[in-house]
Amino acid sequence: MGRKWNNIKEKKASKDAQTSRIYAKFGREIYVVAKQGEPDPEANQALKVVLERAKTYNVPKAIIDRAIEKAKGGGEESYDELRYEGFGPNGSMVIVDALTNNVNRTASDVRAAFGKNGGNMGVSGSVSYMFDATAVIGLEGKSSDEVLEILMEADVDARDILEEEDAVIVYAEPDQFHAVQAAFKEAGITEFTVAEIVMLAQSDVTLPEDAKAQFEKMIDALEDLDDVQQVYHNVDLSE
């Protein structure tokens, strides 16, 4: 479970063009989730998860407020939530989550991003069985022992607690996401480097340099698609 989520996040946020694209994707996701349930995060747990993740990406409050107000106003835009699964070079596995108002367009774009970069789309279930939905919460300024003590005192279970560079990363069941955060907040910790529910590969694979470069190009092509919200994979991209 050693993938460095915070490094991936900062790599995305370091590009101005990517930053605006990330913000737009958050705006769409917040609107959809707020429209599906209550526009109040305290009454809509799915919205609360999205807002916690948005905070770690420094999404401006204006974008968040605009999306929620749009949902409150009964915006007429309608989006389908889709999941695509596929394979990259050397049998690497990829999951792509999308929000779209044009299913045919998105399917075509995702298929092209795979096909032009040495990959191919698979059928539903061809990849996802090798991934687990996982709450990932990271923080700085504490040791793994201190984090474990906080969680034990709050009677909150975690799958794993790892120290990665300057951060401690907690991996837990998705239904423990809010409980883990509540335990930390009770201990005075309110800032997180990572706070999201992801599809985490059960094991990572390492690609040779040429295949790794091609794989990264494919992931970039998928993430650049406006309809794509999240891309998960099982490749170790650490240096």
From TrEMBL:
Where is this protein localized, as stated in its record? Cytoplasm
Enumerate the GO terms in the molecular function aspect: DNA binding
Query: GO biological process: any one?
Result: regulation of DNA-templated transcription
List the GO terms this entry assigns under cellular component, sorted alphabetically: cytosol
SUPFAM superfamilies in the record, alphabetically? YebC-like
Transmembrane annotation, as ranges? none
Query: What residues does the TACO1/YebC-like second and third domain cover?
Result: 79-235
InterPro entries found in the cross-reference section: Integrase-like_N, TACO1_YebC-like_2nd/3rd_dom, TACO1_YebC_N, Transcrip_reg_TACO1-like, Transcrip_reg_TACO1-like_dom3, Transcrip_reg_TACO1_YeeN, YebC-like
| Chief subcellular location | cytoplasm
Q: Which UniProt keywords apply?
A: Cytoplasm, DNA-binding, Transcription, Transcription regulation
UniProt similarity note: Belongs to the TACO1 family. YeeN subfamily.
How is this protein named in the record?
Probable transcriptional regulatory protein AS180_10640
To which species is this protein native? Priestia veravalensis
